[in-house]
């Protein structure tokens, strides 16, 4: 251990070793073990994903001892601006797309030595907190101008109504037989699954502006499926959707379930 009062700048290998040995150890213990300051320990642990990625990329090379800042900051800046613009357009972005775009920017900036390795991509993600997310929902299909116009009209529509009398209804699908789409696995091993289960039921959920939920409606293929023989004890109602008159029937059922229909009540319904 170095003499007291000295703080070493750890090599990349030592930083990775510190990260791997940090579990269950306090900062004080790590400082004593590696002879560095608290600030350096904090910085290493905060940037552990970046250091691990850099070490994995350069573990067979003795030339790179330290993990310094990027020498292609102008490329990184352009990529970050492009990424933010793509997200604002609700455009799905993959790692490969980022790498190809980075090569284009590097060529425009006359940087022929720029390499888009997986390590570079990992460090870029770490710097900007980029992670893969599932693309879901209908938000991206809605015109922003229509939304803003609706916001201006809505106050006049609901004026004079109590929050308990203003209802909204929407549908949600329940894929009741599906298995989880993610799992823990040993690093490096293939993780495969079968075909996705498509069997599902539709649930109609509605509540008022005050936050009071009404009885959930379950819409399925069969009128009396065996798996829902005790549905009356669940506080829900079951309806069959394959009947031609079912839409009108379900709408009437929804209106009957709302307790405040002794007077006019606004109800917004998604397409049923």
TrEMBL record:
What's the source species for this entry? Latimeria chalumnae (Coelacanth)
| Keyword tags | DNA-binding, Nucleus
- Asked whether the UniProt record includes DNA-binding among its keywords, one would answer yes
Q: Which residues form the HTH CENPB-type domain?
A: 63-134
Q: Spell out the Gene3D superfamilies in the cross-references.
A: Homeodomain-like
Q: Tell me the InterPro entries matching this sequence.
A: CenT-Element_Derived, Homeodomain-like_sf, HTH_CenpB_DNA-bd_dom, HTH_Psq
Q: Which GO terms describe its molecular function?
A: DNA binding
One GO CC term, this protein:
nucleus
* A Pfam match: HTH_Tnp_Tc5
How is this protein named in the record?
HTH CENPB-type domain-containing protein
């Amino acid at each position: 251990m170095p003499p007291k009062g000295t703080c070493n700048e750890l090599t990349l290998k030592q930083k990775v070793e510190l990260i791997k040995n940090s579990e269950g150890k306090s900062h004080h213990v790590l400082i004593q073990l590696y002879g560095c300051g608290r600030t350096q320990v904090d910085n290493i642990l905060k940037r552990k994903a970046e250091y691990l990625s850099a070490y994995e990329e350069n573990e067979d090379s003795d030339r790179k001892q330290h993990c310094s800042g990027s020498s292609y900051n102008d490329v990184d800046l352009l990529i970050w601006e492009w990424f933010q613009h793509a997200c604002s357009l609700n455009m799905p972005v993959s790692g490969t797309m980022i790498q190809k775009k980075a090569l284009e920017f590097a060529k425009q900036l006359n940087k022929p030595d720029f390499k888009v390795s997986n390590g570079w991509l990992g460090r870029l993600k770490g710097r900007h907190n980029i992670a893969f997310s599932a693309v879901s929902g209908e938000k991206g299909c809605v015109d922003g101008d229509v939304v803003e116009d609706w916001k201006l009209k809505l106050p006049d529509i609901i004026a004079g109504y109590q929050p308990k009398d203003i209802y909204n209804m929407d549908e949600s699908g329940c894929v009741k037989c599906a298995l989880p789409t993610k799992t823990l696995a040993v690093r490096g091993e293939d993780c495969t699954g079968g075909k996705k289960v498509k069997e599902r039921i539709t649930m109609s959920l509605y509540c008022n502006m005050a936050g009071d939920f009404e009885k959930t409606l379950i819409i399925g293929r069969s009128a009396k499926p065996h798996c829902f023989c005790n549905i009356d004890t669940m506080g829900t109602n079951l309806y069959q959707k394959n009947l031609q008159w079912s839409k009108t029937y379900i709408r009437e059922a929804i209106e009957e379930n709302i307790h405040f229909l002794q007077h006019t009540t606004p109800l917004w319904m998604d397409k049923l």
